[in-house]
Write a structure and sequence with these properties.
Layout lengths: L14 H16 L3 H26 L9 H11 L6 H17 L12 H25 L1
Helix pairs in contact: 1-3, 1-4, 2-3, 2-5, 3-4, 3-5, 4-5
């Protein structure tokens, strides 16, 4: 349930995008504080690493497509400590998905890391880069 984000990972079309969109909608609806987002993010990163490691071993797959906790946590990383307006949340979604799908260096290199940490790390870095870019755009 954790690795698939309440079974969103079994969505037949673009499960990672759906998991990211789910995180965005949660933030749009509930507008949690930075502290709450950070708590959910840290919890997602820790539990996601453990759960995705277990699912990857059980499925005998390096990164099963139905494991989407990494996209959920990556999106939260993209928008943590930023204003929660719809423009920022959409920008975070678009940038995060762009970097997560294309995986430019140094993101691509993290895929060499095995297990749950490897599954989570590329999405975390995609989120960090997205967050930093949004911050730059906000300064312009």
């Amino acid at each position: 349930m954790i690795a698939t984000v309440f079974f969103i990972g079994y969505c037949p079309v673009a499960p990672g995008t759906v998991a990211s969109a789910f995180a965005m909608v949660i933030l749009l609806i509930f507008a949690p504080s930075d502290t709450v987002i950070l708590f959910i993010l840290i919890t997602s990163l820790i539990l996601g690493t453990v759960a995705s490691e277990k699912v990857a071993k059980e499925s005998n797959s390096k990164d099963p497509s139905y494991v989407v906790i990494d996209e959920f946590a990556g999106y939260l990383t993209a928008v943590v400590f930023l204003p929660l307006n719809w423009q920022i949340l959409v920008a975070g979604f678009v940038l995060f998905r762009f970097f997560d799908i294309l995986k430019p260096p140094p993101i691509r290199q993290t895929q060499k890391i095995a297990g749950g940490l490897g599954i989570m790390l590329d999405d975390f870095l995609s989120g960090v880069i997205s967050n930093l870019l949004i911050r730059v755009f906000l300064l312009l």
